[in-house]
Amino acid sequence: MSKSNVVFAASHGTGRDALFSAATEISADFAKRAAELDREGLPPLKEIIRLKNSGLFNALHAPQIGGGGLNWVDALKLVRIISRGESSLGQLLGYHFVNSQYIYWALDDAARAHALGAETVAKNHYWGAAVNPRDPGLELTRRGNAYVLNGRKSFSTAAHISDYINANAALDGQVASFAVPTNRPGYIANDDWDNIGQRLSDSGTVEFRDFPVYEEDFIAPPSEPDAPAPVLPTFNTPLIQLVFVNFYLGTAEGALEAALDYVRTTTRPWITSGVEKASDDPYILERVGEFTAALKASAALADSAAEAVQAALSRGRDVTAQERGEAAAEAYAAKVHATNVSLDITSRVFELTGARSTASSYRFDRFWRNVRTHTLHDPVFYKAKEVGEFVLNGKIPTVSLYS
User: Fold this and answer.
1) Which of 121, 135, 239, 390 is most buried, by CB atoms within 10 Å?
2) Secondary structure, 3-state, the chain
């Protein structure tokens, strides 16, 4: 199915209540099919269309252009809800949120940012990115009155489904940042994502072969590699880290929900438990209480961190590096906690469900595989170190695409 040949029509309203209702409904449907989707491991083209038609992708855009007008606190909760049903799709929703909002922070031309945003909403564009900082950079070369882009990037989430992407590349010894549609010739999404988890995240490699780039695609003037960035665009990092936090927690919540359903319907009580139903087993009840308390605490920390980042972000171009750093430290504390809680719960829900639940038909292991795969994105102990340095020494996190 070609992206360019799909006509989208929103099937839900765009107000807050309507968006949360749509997310809950869609997440429940994804949960019913998650084992099958995980088994197939294909780019989720139909599922992305479902999300587009729901209006969820436009939740953060202004109501004046047809968006939902939500703030980041609510948008991140939507990521968590979708992730309960299928965590790759929660990841994709969150990545789109950050990538599509980046234009508002990076572009000094408000009219152009507004036009790109309006086009995104009108056409239901999905925004991806090709910015993996651990890969050798892409390279722009001048050709006539324009440029051509060449190179390769790995871990390009939403490689096949992206309509627009943010990218950066070397240009005459400087770094150029730009936003381009993926339907131009020379964009190649490879079918090489074969990791154990996040199998629907479409995170393979992309290649650019003489891909055309024009002056009007640039979202910031080319700069020296070590030049300090304006503060506002650097909010993409604490916000993408909060996307991680929320889809980790949503995945763990989905794992616990699936386990509880299995306990109620399938798990048999242990022979020495003295109870007739597994749901009355005191040890299962203790585990359920333990897991629930941990998830509630981590979700509260995640929401608090989102509020801190939203408050700093709302200062716009007046926000200071210190304010950004203080908010980022809150986000990274939430990242440390959510990583540990989600890995623990997704591996231990089998203590509730028992040996029979390890049958491959259930694919209950997908919850752990998903968080284990993505929590390696950037080592969590470096996040803990950044939080420790902030608390002990008052040092704000060094700005990068990881912090």
Assistant:
1) 239
2) CCHHHCCCCCCCCCCHHHHHHHHHHHHHHHHHHHHHHHHHCCCCHHHHHHHHHHCHHHCCCCHHHCCCCCCHHHHHHHHHHHHHHCHHHHHHHHHHHHHHHHHHHHCCCHHHHHHHHHHHHHHCCCEEEECCCCCCCEEEEEECCEEEEEEEECCCCCCCCCCEEEEEEEECCEEEEEEEECCCCCEEECCCCCCCCCCCCCCCCEEEEEEEECHHHEEEEEECCCCCCCCHHHHHHHHHHHHHHHHHHHHHHHHHHHHHHHHHHCCCCCCCCCCCCHHHCHHHHHHHHHHHHHHHHHHHHHHHHHHHHHHHHCCHHHCCHHHHHHHHHHHHHHHHHHHHHHHHHHHHCHHHHCHHHHCCCCCCHHHHHHHHHHCCCCCHHHHHHHHHHHHHHCCCCCCCCCC
